[in-house]
Amino acid sequence: MQDQSESKARLHGLFNITVTPFTAEGAIDRAALVENVERVISRGFDGLLIGGTYGEFPTMTAEERADLFRIVMDVAGNRVPVMLCSAGSDLRTVRDLTVLAGELGGVPMVTPPFVSEITDAQILAFFREVAPLSKTGIIIYNAPGIGITLSPGLIEQLAEIEGMIGLKQGDLNPTTIDRIANRLCGRIRLFCASDLAFLGPMMAGFDGTSSTNSGALTELILASYRAVEAGDAATARDLHRLWYGFRALARQHGQPQVVKAAMRMRGFQGGFVRAPLREIGLAAQQALLAELESLSQDARSGVTIRSA
């Protein structure tokens, strides 16, 4: 993407949160990453999200994250819009990665800094400093699980900053979603940050959602999202219900861990998680395999598993 106007026009739909595949020794598996990017683009996803929370960015160096950006953008090109997470605690790293993301044609996604006792005024100043760095605009990443939770009022103030073109919203409290949808819809692009609970925000008027679990349940989550787009809430609901058991395991054992394990079971290049995360244990693997086998028995899911 070349500028903010193009970014805003193209930022909508279902974005796959592409996992970062690590080898068992902890290195980034470049070939597996390329294969995953090509797979989700070929399946018809509307975009990619690279190096986010479930892409395990906190475990990577700034140089590794920059390399990740370059690999993905070289493969994806301009075929689909790509969000590139440039979040961090060190402003120098955020600045460098934000500039690089825009130069590569992606859209940087930025959280408030992960520091204690930061004020709203300091968060606003931070985003005002970062916003001009990207020619393609900035996506605000409200990620309660990894840092400060931005209030709806502060998000509205951030949306007024020139260059802010989107919000990836992780606080899914219904009252919060109602306010954001009704006060910011049409001003910036609104993305639900969780495929575990995307039906409500989408029905409220959000522009899209980002999905980690679609790396493993590619066909099922894509079909559910397309049903929402078509206004078929009943079908979307029924498809979403199919994978409740998978969601329960992900909540219990961690999304990147469960998704990567499920990808391997399906013959996809999930790779492994990087420490301090740990692979799921044998009992969890058996429960996960049982869920995938159950899904494979329902033609609506599109799920198949690799033959033993």
Describe the structure.
With 308 residues, this protein is an alpha/beta fold. It has one domain (4-240): TIM Barrel (Alpha-Beta Barrel). It is built from 13 helices and 8 strands. Strands 1-2-3-4-5-6-7-8 form an 8-stranded parallel barrel, surrounded by 7 helices. Helix 9 (218-229) packs antiparallel against helix 10 (233-242).
Brief write-up:
The protein is built from 13 helices and 8 strands. It is of the alpha/beta class.
Mean pLDDT: 95
Radius of gyration: 18 Å
Distance between the termini: 42 Å
Helix content: 40-55%
CATH architecture: Alpha-Beta Barrel
Number of helices: 13
Q: What's the CATH class label?
A: Alpha Beta
Number of strands: 8
Order of helices and strands: HEHEHEHEHEHEHEHEHHHHH
Number of domains: 1
The largest sheet has its strands arranged as 1-2-3-4-5-6-7-8
Portion of residues in beta strands equals 5-15%
Secondary structural class: alpha/beta
Largest sheet: 8 strands, parallel, barrel
At the fourth level of CATH, the homologous superfamily is Aldolase class I
**Low-confidence segments, ≥5 residues, pLDDT <50?**
none
The 3D shape can be described as globular
